[in-house]
């Protein structure tokens, strides 16, 4: 079982320069994530949730504030953090085991220990027997399982997931959510999921972080005190999901007003 990392985010600010002008993307983000916790981050497009994930993985480093893993400032990418993107990003000319082994490219250890870890993680994600298959021979869900195995094979402290099931059909997405929960519990690591899907966030998360846009800020943190595995149609689950969804009702209302106004323009012309 992997060591679970502790993430501390304190007064985090992030901005980009756009045509010489500062554009605030994240403002005063404060969040402490406990070892082994599963955090879901939800928000509308443009709220900065994916930017926050890129900062944690180390793909971006220009920010103000503190971003700490186990008390140490995060600087660049590292084997202690694994990431799964919406697209599986498998190399089509490599087999399943070869794609997973890429996660160990710069890792220490003997070839025998690496081969053992690859096989263990292929089994963990339910793909035993597909070791020599190529990506074109896999479904979208199976390809994402390979991507998850690749992110976990070097036993990171933190697993980051950026809309990992967003491109999948509803049935496959639901099944992989269950599988992800099982894998997370088996590995015992800290997990951070970015998603647009509120039901997914509540189903998987110990806490749901609700963000609001322009600039991205934490609006609310919701504790999900429901036993696992969770029943999506249970009254307490539905009530909690509706509670989180209500945080976005003003955005929907504003969009509706804008759409009505836009439709009215040609009529008035």
Overall SS class: alpha/beta
Work out the helicity level: 25-40%
Please state the average pLDDT score.
89
Task: Note the total helix count.
Answer: 8
Number of domains: 2
Kindly state the number of beta strands: 10
CATH homology superfamily name of the largest domain: P-loop containing nucleotide triphosphate hydrolases
What is the 3D form?
Answer: globular
The proportion of residues in beta strands is 15-25%
Strand order of the largest sheet: 6-7-8-3-9-10
The arrangement of helices and strands along the chain is EEEHEEEHHHEHEHEEHH
Second rung of CATH, namely the architecture of the largest domain: 3-Layer(aba) Sandwich
CATH C-level label of the largest domain: Alpha Beta
Q: What integer value in Å does the Rg equal?
A: 20 Å
Task: Give the low-confidence spans.
Answer: 252-269
Concise overview:
With 269 residues, the chain is of the alpha/beta class. Helix content is 36%, strand content 25%.
What can you see in these coordinates?
This protein has 269 residues and is an alpha/beta fold. It has two domains: 7-80 and 159-268, Rossmann fold; 89-155, no CATH class. Helices cover 36% and strands 25% of the residues. The protein is built from eight helices and ten strands. The protein has helices spanning 49-57, 96-101, 111-124, 140-152, 170-187, 198-204, 235-245, 249-268; strands at 7-18, 21-33, 38-42, 64-69, 72-73, 81-84, 158-162, 190-195, 207-212, 217-223. The strands form two sheets. Strands 6-7-8-3-9-10 form a six-stranded mixed β-sheet, sandwiched between helices. A four-stranded antiparallel β-sheet has the order 2-1-4-5, with helices on one face. Helix 3 (111-124) packs across helix 4 and helix 6 crosses helix 7. The longest helix has 20 residues, at 249-268. The radius of gyration is 20 Å and the shape is globular.
